[in-house]
Predict the structure.
Amino acid sequence: MRNLLKKGAPFLWIVLLAGIVLSCSNPPRDQANQQSIQSVTPRPAKPVIVILIDSLMDEPLRKAMQQGRAPALKHLYDNGRYFPQMVSSFPTMSVTIDSTFLTGTYTDHHHVPGLVWYSDKEKRMIFYGNGPKEALKINQPQVVMDAVYHLNQVQLNKRTKTIHEELAEQGKESASINAIVFRGKTEHSLRVPPMAAKGTSLPEQIKVTGPSLLSYAAFAQLDPKNNRNAQVWKKYGLNNTFTAQDLAFLVRHKKLPAFTIAYFPENDMTVHRKGPAETDGIVKADQALQEVLNAFGSWDQAVKQAVWIVMGDSGQTTVLDDRQEAKLDLRPLLQPYRIAKLSEPVSKEDQVVIMPNERMAYIYAIDSNIGLPQLVKKLQGEDKLDIIARKAGQDILVTAGNTTQTFSYRPEGKHIDEYGQSWHLKGNSELVDLDIQNKRIRYGKYPDVLARLYGAMHSHEGRYVVVTSKPGYELVSESSPTHIGGAAHGSLHEKDSLVPLLVSGTDTRPKTLRIVDLKDWLLQLTK
């Protein structure tokens, strides 16, 4: 994720950081999974397999293939079609991107705003997992329940159907292997290992709904022998090998359903540490993918027998190696307001909540006496801020650091963008790098910025400002994780937002190269 893993503290890793040791020597398999494995019948149409490689980017992928270090990906590339620039969601954080991928909507519809955010309804900060310093200050069982249960069963908008739910309504089965967002229509009991359940307020079982086949790290496996890849020292199953083994298990037993999403997490961690040009993470993902292709008997048979979609979720941008320069602490900019602390419940005395998602942040005015224009004015003094946005009636009002110029927009106007979306525009469009000619909009360094930013601004309740940082910088608050000298994501910038798409086994393609438009195309492929 994904984001739980990519921030150095996945939900299970967070448990470890909190001092909880999971007993994973023999994790129980989910009963619903086993029943589904036994009941899947052969289908006339080819199964669709999505391989989601975290933080996969075009240039290092091409480099790895050219060097002969990614032969499995190269085989799919040679027998398919390649699109180097597909637009991600916003914020460019995995839980939000996964939600967009599964629902075919942006955040204004699926309601998962980011990896971390503040719920005005519940009056609390929500973390799906973040850095180790934050992990020591927040309620660990609550983080686990938010990541495992509330994300899928409560916070992901129930009125917005996932691809798993739609396929179930069509009488088709689907599978999710290690994906953080997985909601479907089949009931599953995810079993929390006994040591974790006894040592905390966590229940012994967490009941969720997912696809017919659900694999979820140490909580549930499809292959009964895959528990060896769900040990503590293997990040409890949040690794490429775990994902590959469960997927290969379905292939070998001829139990692939109509649609499968398999998540390969490890590349993200490598890129965070070593920067966006690093290829080692892609090589490791390719080695895991080789196991899956081998399960078909030959790689040629793999291409003939299935439709393959290999994709990234977000890019990453280089973070400067000077810690003082690269970190942009938002707290000094918002003095003298009282800023809520991580280690304490949000109180009536608190005035502002800051929730950084690496290179973007939500800044909430929870004191009714503080106006959003006041927050924006304070933020405009920081030159490292790239985009500063707030609601202004029906409009989204945009400005930036070190300027007083503004740009405002709303849907349903006379200007048409390259995706057929219409907008009413006013002010300095250079703030979002638009090329406008004859009422036609072309996007520059912020792909699909109008729809993506509009989605984030309407993603959840509350009064808040959205900010992003310029390339090279990360936004931080109290104990936020950083990636000094490595790379990070979260923003609207093209470096964070463009990912490759590799398609093999079909001559079709999505109507546009946006993750938000993949769902309808994938549903068509299963027919």
